[in-house]
């Protein structure tokens, strides 16, 4: 049986991404963070070769752009080492594809399914927050923070995520002692909304969500994430 070196084992334990792909990626999206930010964070964490491809004329591009199955963005455009091009839409699908490609999950099928369920819960929180922000009438925009903080289903989901993290020993990881794509997406959730005007620390804080904050702190120390957050690749909002 082949032995795993201490250095290799340490990298796995620390949740470093596999660099097992030579593909190049583009993220087709508006010049903003939005839903594409979660994809960008996963790509950054995975040390992938990627860049943004901005929407310039959406009225035309949503019908003329190859691969936009549902006339929605983001879209991942992958060019493989052999020159083949793959186009993929739907944020969750893109993230799961990248997680598998860069080995950001588990090698165990059941544990991978568990991670997928955690991801779905987090993404449901993200969707609820986006609905509040982007579906509120213009004349009622000042009520967004109040409506978010009154959303009991949102509070229940966040509480459930806290319990999941508690069941893993409140160690700042969703599974074991390794950062996965779920941890990265959770970081993105907190990073996007912990500074949202009117919400700030009312939704996520060391007092209210100590386990999620531990995840946030772990991922924020990752060298690739730190570099991305300071780079020109990141949009201001």
Automatic annotation (TrEMBL):
It comes from the Eukaryota. Residues 108-237 form the GST C-terminal domain. GO terms for molecular function: glutathione transferase activity. Residues 23-106 form the GST N-terminal domain. One of its GO terms (biological process) is glutathione metabolic process. It holds the Pfam family GST_C_3. SUPFAM superfamilies: GST C-terminal domain-like, Thioredoxin-like. Gene3D superfamilies: 1.20.1050.10, Glutaredoxin. This is Glutathione S-transferase. It comes from Neocallimastix californiae.
């Amino acid at each position: 049986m082949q032995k795993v070196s201490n250095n290799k084992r340490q990298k796995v334990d620390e949740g470093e991404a596999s660099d097992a792909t030579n593909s190049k990626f583009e993220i087709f999206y508006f010049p903003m963070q939005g839903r594409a930010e979660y994809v960008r964070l996963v790509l950054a964490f995975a040390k992938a070769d990627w860049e943004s491809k901005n929407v310039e004329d959406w009225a035309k591009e949503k019908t003329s752009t190859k691969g936009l199955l549902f006339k929605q963005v983001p879209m991942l455009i992958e060019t493989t080492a052999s020159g083949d091009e793959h186009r993929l839409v739907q944020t969750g699908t893109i993230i799961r594809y990248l997680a598998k490609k860069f080995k950001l999950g588990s090698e165990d099928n059941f544990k991978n399914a568990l991670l997928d369920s955690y991801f779905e819960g987090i993404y449901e929180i993200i969707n609820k927050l986006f609905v509040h922000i982007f579906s509120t009438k213009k004349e009622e925009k000042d009520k967004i923070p109040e409506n978010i903080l009154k959303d009991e289903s949102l509070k229940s989901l966040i509480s459930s995520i806290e319990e999941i993290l508690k069941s893993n020993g409140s160690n700042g990881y969703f599974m074991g002692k390794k950062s996965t794509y779920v941890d990265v997406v959770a970081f993105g959730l907190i990073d996007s909304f912990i500074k949202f005007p009117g919400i700030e620390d009312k939704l996520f804080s060391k007092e209210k969500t100590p386990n999620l904050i531990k995840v946030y702190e772990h991922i924020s120390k990752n060298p690739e994430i730190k570099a991305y957050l300071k780079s020109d690749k990141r949009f201001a909002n």
